[in-house]
Design goal:
Quino_amine_DH_bsu; globular; EPTP; signal; repeat; four-stranded antiparallel sheet; 18 strands; EAR
């Protein structure tokens, strides 16, 4: 079990941890030096195990050497909050939700596995992206992004807002294209699921510009198009 540590009262340069199950409980197995870690994603490609870690600045890909995880690849991100690995069109991708750079209006990234590492494949516009969710409906692959905040780092906050739509992108065969905007308010999580023959996307809203934290979360249902 990997645990991402974001920081303490003094610094974001704190260790994250890898725990191993001993048959009865989890025990500390490895300290991982991290910088504002927010999410970790474990996966296996061609028999090799990796751990992708979303950091406050650039993020890292760690590779298992048979005994522990070692730093393998650094790749550009901006306050990454979430990562998700998935396969589409016979290729392996890693989606990264970028939260904040010099502004909250930073693009999020789609990385493609080249056979030895992840390479940037696509940037897509987001606003304080907090979560990514990849799913398939009727053979079509979608990527949903929870947008948290639309604003810049300057003294003029007149156009800044938590009432920012989240995005649903659809895979075109070579890239993701914007398919739908979903009304949301400081969205911080999304979850796709099916019940019987219906598909749903739950969006967790946490704040709006008017009622503050007293805001409903929303359940969207797929209409077929």
């Amino acid at each position: 079990m990997a645990v991402a540590s974001f920081g303490n009262d003094d610094t974001m340069n704190v260790n994250s941890y890898l725990f191993r199950w001993n048959g009865n409980k989890f025990e500390l197995y490895q300290d991982l030096a991290t910088d504002g870690a927010y999410d970790m994603e474990f996966f296996t490609i061609a028999g090799q195990s990796y751990l992708a870690a979303a950091y406050a600045v650039n993020s890292y890909l760690l590779r298992w050497n048979g005994n522990k995880f070692e730093s393998y690849k650094e790749f550009a991100t901006h306050g990454a909050r979430d990562m998700e690995l998935f396969n589409v069109s016979g290729q392996t991708f890693l989606a990264v939700a970028n939260f904040h750079g010099r502004t909250f209006n930073v693009p999020s990234y789609l990385y493609r596995w080249s056979g030895s590492t992840f390479e940037l494949h696509q940037e897509f516009a987001t606003h304080g992206a907090y979560d990514v969710e990849v799913f398939t409906i009727a053979g079509q692959t979608f990527l949903a992004v929870a947008n948290f905040y639309n604003g810049d780092n300057n003294d003029d906050t007149s156009g800044d807002t938590y009432n920012v739509n989240s995005y649903l992108f659809r895979w075109s065969g070579s890239k993701f294209e914007l398919h739908q905007e979903l009304a949301s308010h400081k969205a911080c999580d999304m979850e796709f699921f099916t019940i019987a023959d219906q598909s749903f996307l739950a969006v967790a809203n946490s704040y709006d510009d008017y009622s503050q934290h007293n805001v409903d979360s929303v359940l969207f249902r797929w209409s077929g198009s």
